[in-house]
């Protein structure tokens, strides 16, 4: 009984928060997305879904600030995903047509790239930098060590940490 009452109260809180702020949030997001109505509408919905999923609700009077923090993170995620998607599509365009992947393969690869980007973004700066320099710029560990001003042993540790984080991300659903 108590859980049902709590769920009803939370639903009412989310409903009130939506009624009070959804229109404002749409305008705020639209401004940050260059007037793109479709993306702004999607991110309004995603903001409330993330709010509900988190189970944390703003204290009275702090609804806009709370929603702004959630929505701001979603805007960053959207820009990051679009940037990765554009880079991936450019790389695909440079490939001959017979080796171009299917739409399904492209979607899977893009999802993987976004997950790996998020993993690397959460790592300490030098760890992700070492990984990117080694794997995407093709630098040797010695060259990475010189560029970062650290020892080769430190680069090996950084690479191990970054590789392990990426492998763990591959196991996530």
Helical content band: over 70%
User: Which geometry do the CA atoms define?
Assistant: globular
Main beta sheet strand tally, sense and closure: none
The number of distinct β-strands equals 0
Termini gap: 34 Å
Low-confidence stretches: 1-6
| Helix and strand sequence | HHHHHHH
Number of H/I helices: 7
**Average pLDDT, all residues:** 84
Q: What is the C-alpha radius of gyration, as a whole number of Å?
A: 21 Å
Structural class: mainly alpha
Our estimate of the beta-strand percent is: under 5%
Concise summary:
With 173 residues, the chain is an all-alpha fold. It has helices at 2-32, 37-54, 63-93, 103-122, 125-135, 141-148, 152-171.
């Amino acid at each position: 009984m108590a859980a049902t009452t709590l769920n009803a109260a939370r639903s009412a809180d989310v409903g009130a928060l939506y009624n009070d702020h959804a229109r404002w949030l749409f305008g705020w997001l639209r401004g940050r997305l260059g007037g793109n109505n479709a993306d702004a509408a999607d991110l309004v919905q995603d903001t409330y879904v993330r709010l509900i999923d988190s189970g944390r609700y703003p204290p009275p009077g702090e609804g806009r600030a709370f929603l702004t923090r959630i929505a701001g993170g979603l805007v960053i995620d959207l820009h990051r995903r679009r940037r990765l998607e554009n880079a991936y599509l450019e790389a695909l365009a440079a490939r001959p047509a017979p080796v171009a992947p299917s739409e399904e393969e492209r979607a899977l690869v893009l999802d993987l790239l976004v997950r790996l980007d998020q993993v690397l973004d959460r790592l300490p700066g030098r760890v992700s930098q070492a990984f990117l320099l080694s794997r995407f710029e093709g630098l040797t560990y010695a060259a990475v060590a010189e560029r970062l001003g650290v020892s080769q042993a430190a680069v090996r540790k950084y690479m191990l940490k970054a590789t392990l984080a990426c492998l763990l991300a591959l196991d996530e659903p």
